[in-house]
Specification:
Rossmann fold, 120 residues, alpha/beta
């Protein structure tokens, strides 16, 4: 089953009830796919929408089809010198490590990275 990794832009718009992202969530709940939330993207989204962990948990992370993706030491060291924002680099690393795809609303952040993107 393929993992779809929400970047910060996707998490922000998911929080804002953007329908295409909600549909992905319901597909995950239905067992069609898995969703991944990288820790760095979650931090960026949390700051942008001025929310907290309890709200994210209530929205999505209580669902087994959603996987929290910590920034592990190996990934941090590997992506340290990659171009782009840290949340983007973390998403790229996770997508490569899992053969997943990054879900984004801002594909321009991924220029220069070879990674499958789902632009919504």
């Amino acid at each position: 089953m393929r993992l779809y990794i929400f970047d910060a832009s996707a998490l922000i718009d998911f929080h804002g009830n953007y329908d295409p992202l909600r549909r992905l969530y319901y597909r995950a709940v239905g067992g069609e796919l898995l969703l991944g939330w990288p820790a760095v993207a979650l931090a960026e989204a949390t700051a942008a929408v001025e929310t907290d962990w309890d709200e994210w948990w209530a929205i999505m992370l209580g669902e087994p089809a959603v996987i929290g993706l910590p920034l592990v030491v190996q990934a941090a060291a590997e992506i340290a010198r990659w171009p782009g924002a840290l949340d983007v680099r973390h998403c790229v690393w996770e997508a490569r490590a899992t053969s997943g795809a990054v879900v984004t609303r801002k594909p321009s952040g991924y220029e220069g990275h070879r990674v499958p993107l789902l632009v919504v």
